[in-house]
Amino acid sequence: MKPINAGLLGIGTVGGGTWEVLNRNADEIQRRAGRAIRISRVADKDLKKAQSLVNGKAKITSDAYEVVRAKDIDIVIELIGGTSIAKDLVLEAIRNGKQVVTANKALLATHGNEIFAAAQKKGVMVAFEASVAGGIPIIKALREGLAANRIEWIAGIINGTSNFILTEMRDKGLPFAAVLKEAQKKGYAETDPAFDIEGVDAAHKLTILSALAFGIPMQFSKAYTEGISKLTQEDIRYAGELGYRIKLLGITKRTDQGIELRVHPTLIPARRLIANVEGVMNAILVKGDVVGPTLYYGAGAGSLPTASAVVADLVDVTRLITADPQQRVPHLAFQPDRLAKDPILPMGEVETACYLRMRVQDRPGVLADVSRILADSKISIGAMVQKEPGEGESRVDIVMLTHRAIEKNVDAAMAKIEKLPTVLGKVTRIRLEELL
Ligand code: HSE
Angle between the 105-122 and 85-95 helix axes, to the nearest 10 degrees? Predict the structure, then answer.
């Protein structure tokens, strides 16, 4: 059978890895796919870099539109990233009847509904395994492996850079900025590192997982997003003393009122497997009603791990290219005309336990005032620690773990506590999940 011709848009970190994997494992890939898969065209702004990698084995251009319109291309691999040019190129590729493989989580989370509708209409596939958690085949697992289940919730460490930063801060006491630089050097971080640190990248990925888990459209704009930039060494240490680790989690959960879609630093019991996922590694815990909890672990970023997912999609698309479009696995796991209308729950309505830290003056009655405010807001305290004041210090840290409470009640209580004259500065709130 004649080889499948792929056109690669962007031969950077992941594109370079994809080129390498297709060459390195060419025989094995052909045995799996039933046909050879080769990249016959490459588009990149840096022609010199592209030339040195490709070494005459593919046509190179700086005009990506040339690739998406080329008659001889069967599959377009979009690894440019971003949401503007990439969107145009993907839609143009679809219009030209190309199959698409993309690692672009931002694009799918924000424009996925439009892209999948266009692909459906044209009868082409848009495969996106590499868009979430790099090398972990979580899209395949959710869409196919867990198809018997009603998914109850997903909780994932889905941003390698922030997990790397939290790990290094805890283990080595390193400052935030130095660790971020290291992650950038290793090619894990997004072009705009705020996407990693402020939880945006994780929210993009979570939006995709949520759509696949619950059969709902992509709704990134409704995701609650809070990053790790305000976390302090003290919070990491206090959480450890209480038997917890702090991880940036993406959580999506089905409730009677709607679907939770939230990314924020979270205390999780240190004894959970997922609490021990360190460095740039990713892990996703999926709770299905039939199978129970399942955990997926692996490298969530980097050249070869992400290329592993891109090439898996190339094999998948190659195998399915001749199948009737109606019989293929639907892009978002559920049939496109059967998507659910469940609302995304506003963050104020979400119920979680919390870690609250406040700095107070060490005086009689302070704790009583704080407890009263919490009690009036129907927030029950599960555990409390008052740290010893330092030598000659009159200010102490109080750390409380609350039972589950509605977010808006906690917000109101925090505002009242911050108004107490004996409470200094802001109250730090980190949500807590037992993940059972
Ligand atoms: N910046 C991302 C991360 C890369 O750190 O996980 C993979 O999407």
Answer: 20
**Ligand 1 atom 7: residue of nearest CA:** 301
Pocket test for ligand 1, best of 107, 108, 162, 188 (most atoms within 8 A of CB): 188
Q: Are residues 206 and 248 in the same domain?
A: yes
Closest C-alpha to 362, from 392, 339, 341, 383: 392
Category of 288 on φ-ψ map: left (φ > 0), alpha (ψ -120 to 50) or beta: beta
**How many domains does the chain contain in total?**
3
Residues 255 and 312 in one domain: no
DSSP state of 344: B
Contact 105, 312 (CB under 8 A): no
Q: Is 205 a catalytic residue?
A: yes
* 101/173 same-domain check: no
| Residue pLDDT, tens place only, 67-123 | 999 999 999 999 999 999 999 999 999 999 999 999 999 999 999 999 999 999 999
Is the full-model pTM beyond 0.85?
Answer: yes
The owner of tokens 């009242």 is 416
